[in-house]
């Protein structure tokens, strides 16, 4: 659960009183102002749980793998492979960028493909609907539904 602590300007604070926004079991002190007046202000986030987010799911799955001793070596191997792949990709892109003519040609090809994609899928409404169908089908294929 997230909480936000705020300091209100002195005219808004009543001396020696606590202000609580929402239903809170615990109050946090706000630092006293130059006048010596202080107050408690706590804002509590209310809403959907953030446990359904993808990043928390990834952390939970890594923790589950880490708890099994026979899978730790595989986890280290995947981490090393990810670092090695990123390093290799960076070096390949740097090497290609140093070639005299190739970066300009690849940029031109990228612009042509982008223009074709806009013309093919985004310009007209029936084509946009087709693109949405393709995306939805791909999502269903990935998640196996």
TrEMBL record:
Keyword Transmembrane: yes
Protein name per Swiss-Prot or TrEMBL: Cyanobacterial aminoacyl-tRNA synthetase CAAD domain-containing protein
Main location: membrane
PANTHER family assigned: PROTEIN CURVATURE THYLAKOID 1C, CHLOROPLASTIC (PTHR33222:SF3), PTHR33222
Domain Cyanobacterial aminoacyl-tRNA synthetase CAAD residues, every copy: 61-144
GO cellular component: chloroplast thylakoid membrane
Keywords: Membrane, Transmembrane, Transmembrane helix
Key word Mitochondrion present: no
Transmembrane segments: 73-96, 102-123
InterPro entries noted in UniProt: CAAD_dom, CURT1
Pfam families: CAAD
Membrane topology classification: Multi-pass membrane protein
């Amino acid at each position: 659960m997230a909480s936000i602590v705020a300091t209100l300007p002195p005219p808004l604070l009543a001396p020696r009183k606590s202000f609580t926004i929402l239903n809170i079991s615990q109050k946090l002190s706000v630092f006293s102002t130059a006048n010596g007046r202080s107050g408690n202000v706590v804002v509590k986030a209310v809403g959907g749980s953030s446990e359904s987010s993808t990043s928390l799911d990834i952390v939970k799955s890594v923790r589950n793998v880490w708890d099994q001793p026979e899978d730790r070596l595989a986890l280290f191997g995947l981490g090393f492979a990810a670092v090695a792949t990123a390093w290799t990709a960076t070096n390949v892109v740097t090497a290609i960028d140093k070639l005299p003519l190739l970066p300009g040609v690849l940029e031109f090809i990228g612009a042509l493909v982008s223009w074709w994609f806009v013309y093919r899928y985004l310009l007209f409404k029936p084509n946009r609907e087709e693109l949405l169908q393709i995306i939805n089908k791909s999502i269903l294929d990935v998640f196996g539904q």
